[in-house]
Amino acid sequence: MKIIVRLTFIIIVLITMNANSQNFKKDSLINTSYESLIELYDLYLLDTINAFKIAKVYLEKAKKDNDSTKIARAYARMAFVSERRKALNYLDTTIIFSKNSADKNFPAEGYINKSLYLFDNDEYEKSLKNAILGYQSAKDKDNIDQQLTALHQINAINTLWGNYRKALDSELLTYKLLMKNNNSEVFIQHYLYSLEGLGKCYVRLNKPDSALFYFKKGIVEAIKRKDTVTYYAFVSRSGSALYKTQNYKAALDSLRKGDKIREAYNKKYLPYYFYYLGSIFYNQGNTKEGIKYFKKIDSIYEKRHVLQPELPIVYDKLATYYQNNGDKENQLKYLYKLIQVRKIIEAKSIYIKEKTEQDYHIPKLLEEKEALIEELNIKNSNTKVITWVSLSFFAISILVTLYYFKRQQLFKKRFEALENQLEIKSNKENKILSEEDLGLPITIIEEILSKLIVFENKNKFLSQNISLNELSKNFKTNSTYLSKVINLKKDKNFSQYINDLRVDYSVIKIKEDSKFRRYTIKAIANESGFKNAESFSKAFYKKFGLYPSYYLKQLENKKG
Question: Among 126, 135, 172, 428, which residue's CB has the most CB atoms within a 10 Å radius?
């Protein structure tokens, strides 16, 4: 009953908000649950004004309940829909309220998101500090996903400004940690980050063959997943490695091919792209064409101050070019810029190297394990202690193994049930509705039911913009009537009805279409009408009791 009340409340709020978003007020939400507010927030994430209002209501409720973790979560949500400066302030508050939280995601979530904001604004020193704090927090809470995210961030900064050799060592250890935890829902995302990070390190260390090895693995994975953006990104990265081999023609082809989706990349892409294009032409003797691209990099730096380690090389080549052409004014101009950026970059590199050495000794993933073994060896003169530790470890191992085995058996049974019966309907769905059931004329009930059949048969539920209000308009009825019919006929609320249709569709497509099975979870979610992979996975698990990643893996094993 509580669930029905909560969902009815959400529907009423959504209708109100759709009718007039400018009149959306906190009073309409203050009495609903935290879970309902999060659902509404996620629904209105792109509508930053309303999303912010929902987060504010969540915050007020959390403050009233004196729940510091929920307060932290509210500020984190407010940060996501705020401009940069305010977002950083909200994330600082998130960290303050969650420092002593028992929640597995905090305070690491605050530190890591703050690091990402700072990195995107080229504030690498501050970004590194927060990434390290995020990593330490995630490690304390044994949150592998957050550890990997923080490590990718730390490695990205060190690949740009730190000790390239140590950055590579860290990337390799991160890769090992990832492969040990390859059952994560976000494994593929971390895997692609690792491949790119390793390749970039090898480019920096002038080991292009090793770089190409990892970039090619990224290309293969992107093709397998039909991920166009990732494919072109790795193709472009391959251009930088090919440049290091002096295979300029192949490098130029890769860079230009990757540039086809320029709009999909971040602001650091253009300086990278222009640098390698300019360097290729310059090294081939086409100096004027090379200088043209170097000047584009200078123009970007003047406008946005986007730093990159190769910037001194660019200004050195520009100064030399104008010196050779007898243009002393431009020669001095670029010499001055060369001196300035060298000072900035040297200061940045020194800080990052020192900070890394002091606060972040290569992820301690293997070091701590070896140190523990050594410590036990030194202190294990007492045989009883060793025996006790061994037996305890053995007992824990058995318990963990039994738990894992039972869990896998349960998932396997659910998988087999799903294979044998794709469509599970409740008995109520076959119920014949009457006027007494709904208090509606039978003609209206029959008209709504016939339109629902057409709606389902034509897969119109795949639209990500579908809502109770919009569907009722399309059916030329009102949302209350439509909601009543669905609740009684389908034995579920509108949101569950749509989600079940979508996951049923996804299962059939996965089973029947071999190409569809090769999609990423995110791509399958989008094709099935969901806005993100997380909501798809939750809906899938809610209906079938297992995650789509597990279903795909088992189906692949069965067909393989």
Answer: 135
